[in-house]
């Protein structure tokens, strides 16, 4: 969860194996008994080397997240984009309050009247309204709920 301006870090130094890992894993893992072993074989590494390098890339901050992407609604859950208009003087306090909710998937500062945007994911569709009500109570600010109107799948692949 992020709600602060990020400064650009120095570019990470990646060797050829790191680049192969990042490029390959952006295409997902195969649905096989040992997916990391299968990917490691594709990119000429051992499974142990792949797992070690993946952990190192995460620990160093080169990768901020590595994990599955679930379709919350197909699993019976709720998902929405929400926003707050936060007075600048209260931004830090409100950020901490919003980020304390386990339903908040990620939280970003925006250069807009609605200057805090976050995604809510809940176990049920009804949980969205409950989470919004709780966030409003915790922050003292109205939450703007912007539920999905239509879904588009945009495949993002950033080769390194």
TrEMBL record:
Pathway: Porphyrin-containing compound metabolism
Enzyme Commission designation: 4.1.1.111
Domain Siroheme decarboxylase NirL-like HTH: 18-63
Superkingdom of the source species: Bacteria
Domain Siroheme decarboxylase AsnC-like ligand binding: from-to ranges: 80-152
Enzyme class name: lyase
Single GO molecular function: lyase activity
InterPro entries assigned to the protein according to its UniProt record, in alphabetical order: AsnC_trans_reg2, HTH-Siroheme_Decarb, NirdL-like_HTH, Tscrpt_reg_AsnC-like, WH-like_DNA-bd_sf, WH_DNA-bd_sf
Complexes and interactors: Probably forms a complex composed of NirD, NirL, NirG and NirH. All proteins are required for the total conversion of siroheme to didecarboxysiroheme.
Name listed for the protein in its UniProt record: Siroheme decarboxylase NirG subunit
Species this protein is from: Halomonas chromatireducens
Taxonomy of the source species: Bacteria, Pseudomonadati, Pseudomonadota, Gammaproteobacteria, Oceanospirillales
């Amino acid at each position: 969860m992020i709600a602060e301006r990020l400064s650009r870090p120095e570019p990470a130094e990646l060797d050829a194996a790191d680049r192969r890992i990042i490029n390959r894993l952006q295409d997902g893992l195969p649905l096989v008994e040992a997916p990391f072993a299968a990917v490691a074989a594709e990119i000429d590494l051992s499974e142990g080397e792949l797992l070690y390098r993946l952990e190192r890339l995460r620990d160093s901050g080169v990768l901020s997240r590595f994990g599955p992407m679930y379709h919350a609604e197909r699993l019976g859950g709720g998902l929405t984009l929400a926003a707050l208009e936060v007075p600048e003087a209260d931004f830090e306090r409100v950020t901490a309050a919003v980020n304390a909710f386990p339903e908040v998937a990620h939280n970003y500062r925006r250069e807009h009247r609605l200057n805090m945007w976050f995604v809510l994911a809940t176990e049920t569709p009804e949980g969205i309204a409950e989470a919004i009500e709780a966030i409003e109570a915790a922050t003292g600010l109205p939450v703007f709920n912007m539920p999905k109107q239509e879904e588009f799948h945009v495949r993002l692949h950033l080769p390194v």
